[in-house]
Design brief:
about 170 residues, mainly alpha, 8 helices, about 75% helix
């Protein structure tokens, strides 16, 4: 959570200078400054228009309502509109970070679970001093890594299907 807040703070700090810029000539005129529906602010008529309009060759009611809300809050002050964009960008940065953590955890955690099962099984089976040397030789061998990776893919699939951990020991 602290990392998310830090990312949001960095994003806001990096993009904050944009608040001093005016509207741009690219499409701000068609979307905000010269659009009579948006210039009225967020009203019932604007809401209805946003869901039925295909202006600018797109149907994007949330975009229209967002611009209308900005006009209601900040009038035609570009700093307020830019700040809304920066705020949405910071939220997207945090969501992307959380999604990447979730994806990485879903990929790494089954690997970690499988590795713990494997090491526990080897420890129980090879508890002697010579057995510990065998574990290191096994862990460092190329064939073990290849076998482990193959079995890991199969077991991740089983984990996803059965929702239960699968224990395995690679061939020795």
């Amino acid at each position: 959570m602290i990392a998310c807040l830090l990312l949001a703070a960095v994003t806001l700090a990096l993009y904050n200078p944009v608040n001093r810029h005016p509207f741009v000539n690219y499409d701000d005129d068609r979307y905000v400054t010269e659009n009579p529906h948006v210039r009225r602010g967020l009203t019932a008529d604007t809401f209805k228009w946003a869901f039925t309009s295909t202006e600018q060759a797109n149907w994007h009611p949330l975009t229209w309502m967002s611009h209308a809300l900005d006009v209601s809050l900040f009038r035609l002050n570009p700093a307020g509109h830019h700040f809304t964009s920066i705020l949405l960008h910071a939220i997207n940065v945090m969501l992307l970070f959380l999604m990447l953590i979730w994806v990485m955890a879903s990929l790494i955690m089954p690997h970690r679970i499988q590795l713990d099962y494997l090491l526990m099984s080897l420890r129980l089976n090879l508890g002697s001093a010579s057995g510990k040397k065998s574990i290191w030789i096994l862990l460092l061998s190329q064939s073990f890594r290849r076998t482990f990776n193959d079995l890991l893919l199969v077991n991740i699939t089983r984990l996803r299907r059965n929702k239960e951990p699968v224990q395995f020991i690679p061939p020795m």
